[in-house]
Structure prediction request, 339 residues.
Amino acid sequence: MSVAGTDWRESAARIDMLLAGVGDGGEELVRTVADLYGAGLQRMLELLHESGVLTDEALDALAGDDLVAGLLLVHGLHPHDAATRIGLALRGTGVSLVEITDDGVCRLRAQHRPHDVERLIESVAPEITSVVVETAKPLIPVSSLFTRPAT
Amino acid sequence: MRDSLTTLRRVVRNRPAADRPERCEMCAVTIDRAHGHVVDLQSRQLLCACRPCYLLFTDDAAHLRYRAVPDRYRAVGAFLDERGWDELQIPVGLAFLFHNSALGRMVALYPGPAGATESELDIPVVADLRPDVEALLLRRGRDGYLVPIDVCYELVGRLRTLWRGFDGGQQAHAAVDELFERVRARAS
Prediction:
């Protein structure tokens, strides 16, 4: 049976739903199966690399496919590093990446606090442990509007 | 959107603690699943120990803070009679007794949803029982065994996660039966 052509997003959502119904034992089963496939993916990439066909173009093509990139991320096998992935995901949002610290904190800078940016970061870089957004200070502090001038 | 793989990512990343190798709590070397334990006589805590650390504390007569838990199983039959059980005032028909050397008397504990609960009781010290490291694990009207005290800790820990309602429920009873079956096999 081939799953090509069927909507893989639907399968992913279905895993979510089924898992909610069975509890911890189910998680262990899913983890074990996922580990097996992860090991297979890793071996595949190694074999491709050894035979010299894993060129930059090939890697970009893998990273450009939502399903493949998503699965590689699950297993920590994505060819691009976290900074590159985050940079690409933030393109056009007005948010810029400041740095990723050694303990996995992602620091961002933005004019306004972007909506749901943690989720966006998590989806492209699950290894990030927390997201810190620095917003530019407004020119007139809001608190000063409530203080009465001395008469 | 790659967001639909959130669950897979979470499941693969959230590994249960059991996947991590266990370590000796005295010298931090990695140890097998089947390892010995030592009792901290001050805090009454059980520590996982590698073989070399375990062997440091096997002398019963030594005045040390830690004592190795031996590996001895014996059937003792019905150690307490019905009156003895009544005096224990234990709501469940399951208890373990051990000789607390710090208090200089026997202590009876019974498992429950909040872990082990102590029961006040004046029973003579059982001479054959090694203080602090061995216990009498008893079922009311059924059987009793002399066991290493870590077996009792294990049972209490398991029952805590399984306990439902007043008397523990089916799962807790099954866990108790399973443990007694294992102890019986070791004792014979």
